[in-house]
Predict the structure.
Amino acid sequence: MTDSTWHGGAAAVVTLTFDVDAETPILAAGRRYADHLMTMSHQAYGPDVGVPRILELLAELGVPATFFVPGWVAEHRPGLAATIVERGHEVAHHSYSHRAPTSLGAAEERADFERALAVFDAQGIEIRGHRAALWEATRVTLDLIAEHGLAYDSSLMGDDRPYRLEVDGGTFVELPVHWSLDDWEQYAYLPSPQIGSVIESPRKVLEMWRAELDAMRQYRCLFNLCMHPFLTGRPSRLVALRELIEYAQSCGDVAFARCRDLAESAAADPTLLPRIPPTVTPDPGTYPD
Ligand SMILES: [Zn+2]
């Protein structure tokens, strides 16, 4: 049997990913929140304060990252995507408006997806991958990814290692995510709209993520960490992230990669056979809508 190669010999591969959502998840809950200045400033903190600090930290530690940016955010902050790319990181597709694909019709989803591609194209940013808003990918999402020739998606949870997905329009790599490796469940708090109600200790979060990394080193997994600059950009959380990265570096068997580079390695791995997306067809008599 051939051995897998996607990991390049590392015990675990870390992809540090930052979803630069800024105002979009709030506006997706209602345009009226544009007049709610505390909320808007809470979200603007992400790109305005969090991202520069994160870029500095990554440069200091010498690790690459992937920034998933909604087209709306890139459009309203010209130069943001280019700055990230100039620092050696990847900018990837994170919808245009950050409305969940599961809440959109097929035509609406296509328009939103392609509008984001047009924004990045106009800014000269080459896009290789996609992450659905709220990870709520649909069959339409997967078809759009294949149709536009993207190399990977990062929204599903069917494994804890990269896998290949086959849809009608072609195949691409899935870099799976999980709720346990998302800072939203740890740090998201806003009274209105209610995006979450927790402010956990970064010490607890560090301990949890370090335990997952250690276990993933035993099972040779993808440690796909999803963070948001408006959450993880806060000081004590960034200090914990620094400790996590330094710990991973000290292990000696952990590799760091941009998602596009990992997707390329996964696509070339002969052991990763294409899988089909979940096809569950429940009987309407048993499971009403
Ligand atoms: Zn997002």
